Amino acid sequence: xxxxxxxxxxxxxxxxxxxxxxxxxxxxxxxxxxxxxxxxxxxxxxxxxxxxxxxxxxxxxxxxxxxxxxxxxxxxxxxxxxxxxxxxxxxxxxxxxxxxxxxxxxxxxxxxxxxxxxxxxxxxxxxxxxxxxxxxxxxxxxxxxxxxxxxxxxxxxxxxxxxxxxxxxxxxxxxxxxxxxxxxxxxxxxxxxxxxxxxxxxxxxxxxxxxxxxxxxxxxxxxxxxxxxxxxxxxxxxxxxxxxxxxxxxxxxxxxxxxxxxxxxxxxxxxxxxxxxxxxxxxxxxxxxxxxxxxxxxxxxxxxxxxxxxxxxxxxxxxxxxxxxxxxxxxxxxxxxxxxxxxxxxxxxxxxxxxxxxxxxxxxxxxxxxxxxxxxxxx
Length: 379
Hints:
Layout lengths: L3 E5 L9 H15 L3 E6 L4 H7 L4 E4 L7 H19 L3 E4 L12 E4 L4 H4 L6 H17 L2 E4 L2 H11 L6 E3 L14 H10 L7 E5 L8 H12 L7 E5 L8 H10 L7 E5 L3 H9 L3 E4 L8 H8 L4 E4 L4 H5 L4 E3 L3 H12 L2 H15 L4 H17 L1
Parallel strand pairs: 1-2, 1-4, 2-3, 4-5, 5-6, 6-7, 8-9, 8-11, 9-10, 11-12, 12-13
């Protein structure tokens, strides 16, 4: 018998980043697997979730929860009442915090522990809250879901979490969004970014310090500075509030020699990402820390030659289908240059990455989540 699960989708941010891809991919796959679901969400998202999971009971929260502070209060006061009204047997909180005293078992997803190991990745107030919420959730939840073995190991090391209550559920990739692009898709994105067919190295993600973007910029300069016609480096994505990452990237860009071009795009719509990744010479993600590495997987699915590091979860995602570098600028520069000089190597990585990406499905992730929900009831 499948338990009735209340999934808290109310925390999904407006920027539609990695968290929304997790929640959307999971909910659609849980629906396909026949799960008994209730979904609490912001009112603006209600129709979208009804289309995504037609069999689920969609429960729009009060209008005030669009405000983060109000949502956190409502999580502790209103959600337990809603769970009782919906007949939920398990509450799944997909982002770090749980309602205390809900009266039913809770499952929480902890995506990473960077609030502890890399506290500068958020403003001090938000990092302090996330550390407190994560500690409380890890102690109080019946089960803790993590997206990689590396994150499981870090959770045990940093917080002393009980390994018998942690379940690993890898993320999936949506082939409708992330696929080998057509020439028309590549051309459309190139025109939109003002590249007009000019070759480029792609990187997408926040400018949080752990993403290591300043060293990517400096390494890129080393890789291309003696080329007669160097490609551009295109940095897509936004800034994590009060992280200081933007200033560090600006400083690295100011240091660039003449003729080395860096393009900053801000957020890109989902519809552009296949063309953005698939049209790049290389997709580079030299992160110091990742809980999973969604951009790496998504770039692989688009047939990009991916360069990343062997830190934390990234080898679990990339395996032998990506190229690796150390996170310092000199190593990044050498690894990038090797790829830029070898179209054959880039093509081989693109084929291998696309094949490996097909091993990461939301259906498999949903099955792992359903196991975790059942285990929560057994506690």
